[in-house]
Amino acid sequence: MSSCGNPATDPDALMERRAKFDKTTDCIKCKVERGSIVVRHAVYCKNCFFAVVTHKFRRSLEHPSDRMASDARQAASSSRTKSSLVGFSGGLGSTVLLDAVDRFYFPHEDLKKGGKAHPRNKKTSVKVHMCYVEMCNAFTGITDRTSDITDACKDYENLELHICRLEDAFDPNWWSKFHPLGTNIIPSSSIRLDDEALPFTQSIESSSDPVSNLRKYLTSLPTPTAVQSAIKTMVRVILLYTARFLRCSQVILGTSLTSLSINLISSIAQGGGFNVPEESYEEWTASSVDFSAQPTTIRVIRPLRDIGMKECSAWAWWRNLLIIGKEKLPINERQSIGGLTEEFIIGLEKDYPSTVSAIARTCAKVNPKDEATSRCAVCQRPHPSGALDWKARISIRSLSGDESSSVTDSNTHGDRASGLAPDLCYACYSHFVSRSSKSIAIQGDSAIPLPTWVSNSSSRKVSLERLKESIGEYLLEE
Amino acid sequence: MTSSSSSTEQLKINVDFGGGLEILFDNKRSHVVSLPLRVAPSSSDTNPTDPISSSTTESATADETRPTDVSALIDHLKDNVLSDRKRAGLFAENGTVRPGVLVLINDSDWELEGEGSYVLKDGDNVSFISTLHGG
């Protein structure tokens, strides 16, 4: 590579490839051993690498309030007394996460330091669960990998595996366990995409096959970006509800620093700028469901958020962990914002790893200006009011004279009242109303089923009294 | 060492694949690869699109070889060992490994060894580990 400068006068004009480490090939921590890995220009030997990564993991696992604890013992103890659900996909990040969580909660003999009484060295009495969401039924031709996942998790005897399926998002039987009144009255909801108000209907009739509902939902979404985002949202919400059911107070995800940077850029590009803080840490409360006996809020933490993919990969290799890998879904990633962002960030990380780290660190300082007024009915994340007005101001959604179906016109409050649009965040709304050749093809199509939790979250949900009325004749008197 | 003996002498390199990359190589994690001590210069050494470099090196390229390095190993793996040719781009592109593939030379990051220009020695262990298998 060369620049236009004169190499005779400017030595940097040739732009020769520089070494990717700062000074020597010796470890910068112990300064004795020869380095084994370069992490963002810093060289570490194998022993110091594990110590540094473990320290970053523990620090990220702690709640901000834990860090206020006066001593490290209190902080370590506090983090380890919370019942947890670990999200496991079989991918690199979650495989490393499982290994690190197992070592943190159930310290092995070789890791014990700080004396017998140190809280870090006591086995926790708290239950730690792991949950895998199988998505083979989302599309045809995808292999069911539940047996591979079960085999891979056998090594973690202290952790209990739960297997969910993506179609559970549409399965009233699955959702009945979260509902106080049983399966029969869980309403199913649907929307129409041919109207930008997203007309919303609910019924309490028993819905059709969850797999066909899932496929209809995914195939109706207008863009690959929307499909990819919908799958990601469904997996996250299924994990949250599973954690709720298992009475866990925290969900632990294997999002690495690289994945976090990808998620942040991708989310902002899709209109999710309001939820930048939620990409690294969020607190979620289930709505309208009787969980009085269970914890009210679940926190979602990503303890690998300071650890890049390269470090995860080296950890997995040196710890001899088996990576099953994530199933490749038939989504054209080169046409999706998520896929293009991933390709860009991973290419950037090869030569400029610190820039990828800077993305996450910069976003950690960003907070939305407006207050959240409610939660999005689909993604369950906080959103401010006025997303539709904002969309009306920044985009032209219809040609002049063809405004009858435009929800973004500020005079169409009547349409809004019957539609799901006001209950959605800007990003989810944009996913539903994106224009593409496919969205034109589905104009006039029948109603599209929505995940079951949308019924509970929508402000137009069927009231409990109305539900009781409709099944009243079947209820026994007390 | 005579020139005739050096041309027949081979390097034995132990190659490992991990992180899911083994799927592209017949689902085998470990391979032993034989390479000559010296190989022909790579296309990047004599850039055909650069008129100056191509004209100055034209007469010399016939006898010029370079010691076998990791770049040559990557080319060899791509051309001769890779079984899933449709997805070759997941392993190598533009004469090096694809971004997101970690390379260890004798259990040490290849960035400490000079990356593709590291000259291979008989019995070296080279590991290619994909980091692209999601979260």
Automatic annotation (TrEMBL), chain A:
Its main location: cytoplasm. Gene3D superfamilies: HUPs. SUPFAM superfamilies: Adenine nucleotide alpha hydrolases-like (SSF52402). Pathway: tRNA modification; 5-methoxycarbonylmethyl-2-thiouridine-tRNA biosynthesis. GO terms for cellular component: cytosol. One of its GO terms (biological process) is protein urmylation. It is found in: Cytoplasm. Keywords: Cytoplasm, tRNA processing. GO terms for molecular function: nucleotidyltransferase activity; sulfurtransferase activity; tRNA binding. InterPro entries: CTU2, Rossmann-like_a/b/a_fold. Transmembrane segments: none annotated. The keyword tRNA processing applies. PANTHER family: CYTOPLASMIC TRNA 2-THIOLATION PROTEIN 2. Plays a central role in 2-thiolation of mcm(5)S(2)U at tRNA wobble positions of tRNA(Lys), tRNA(Glu) and tRNA(Gln). May act by forming a heterodimer with NCS6 that ligates sulfur from thiocarboxylated URM1 onto the uridine of tRNAs at wobble position. Prior mcm(5) tRNA modification by the elongator complex is required for 2-thiolation. May also be involved in protein urmylation. Belongs to the CTU2/NCS2 family. This is Cytoplasmic tRNA 2-thiolation protein 2. It comes from Schizopora paradoxa.
Automatic annotation (TrEMBL), chain B:
C-terminal thiocarboxylation occurs in 2 steps, it is first acyl-adenylated (-COAMP) via the hesA/moeB/thiF part of UBA4, then thiocarboxylated (-COSH) via the rhodanese domain of UBA4. Belongs to the URM1 family. One of its GO terms (biological process) is tRNA wobble uridine modification. It is found in: Cytoplasm. This is Ubiquitin-related modifier 1. GO terms for cellular component: cytosol. The modification 1-thioglycine is found at residue 135. Residues 53-62 have a biased composition (Low complexity). HAMAP family: Urm1. There is a cross-link at residue 135 (Glycyl lysine isopeptide (Gly-Lys) (interchain with K-? in acceptor proteins)). PANTHER family: RURM1 PROTEIN. Pathway: tRNA modification; 5-methoxycarbonylmethyl-2-thiouridine-tRNA biosynthesis. Coiled coil: none annotated. Residues 41-52 have a biased composition (Polar residues). It comes from the Eukaryota. The keyword Phosphoprotein does not apply. InterPro entries: Beta-grasp_dom_sf, Mopterin_synth/thiamin_S_b, Urm1. The keyword Cytoplasm applies. Acts as a sulfur carrier required for 2-thiolation of mcm(5)S(2)U at tRNA wobble positions of cytosolic tRNA(Lys), tRNA(Glu) and tRNA(Gln). Serves as sulfur donor in tRNA 2-thiolation reaction by being thiocarboxylated (-COSH) at its C-terminus by the MOCS3 homolog UBA4. The sulfur is then transferred to tRNA to form 2-thiolation of mcm(5)S(2)U. Prior mcm(5) tRNA modification by the elongator complex is required for 2-thiolation. Also acts as a ubiquitin-like protein (UBL) that is covalently conjugated via an isopeptide bond to lysine residues of target proteins such as AHP1.
